Amino acid sequence: VAPATPVCEVPSSAMTGTVVQMSCKETEGSPPSEYQWYKNGVALLEKTEAGSARAANITYTMNKKSGTLLFNTVTKNDSGEYFCEASNGIGLSQKCSVKRMQV
């Protein structure tokens, strides 16, 4: 079953230095969807355990299985427009509407 349009929860504003968790979920896809977050139209990298040099400045943890995007301490650089995409390899992937977070 192709995924449904996911529901995204993105706070509209956050204080610098606070913990922010965004969530993305859809329940119709079978097999269960994986979730990819985007910021300003660019796919966010999943931080690997190895932690390449390129990923050294990543301040978030993205879980593709649960759809959560967690910032341990948000900075002004994390302000932007976020959306997530659900895909399970069947049919078209589905995106939620873009939501802006201001830090």
Automatic annotation (TrEMBL):
InterPro entries: Ig-like_dom (IPR007110), Ig-like_dom_sf (IPR036179), Ig-like_fold (IPR013783), Ig_sub (IPR003599), Ig_sub2 (IPR003598), JAM2 (IPR042625). SMART domains: IG, IGc2. Transmembrane segments: none annotated. Residues 3-103 form the Ig-like domain. It holds the Pfam family Ig_3. It is found in: Cell junction, Tight junction; Cell membrane. GO terms for biological process: leukocyte cell-cell adhesion. GO terms for cellular component: bicellular tight junction; cell surface; plasma membrane; protein complex involved in cell adhesion. Its main location: other. It comes from the Eukaryota. It is a single-pass type I membrane protein. Keywords: Cell junction, Cell membrane, Disulfide bond, Immunoglobulin domain, Membrane, Signal, Tight junction, Transmembrane, Transmembrane helix. Belongs to the immunoglobulin superfamily. This is JAM2 protein. The gene is Jam2.
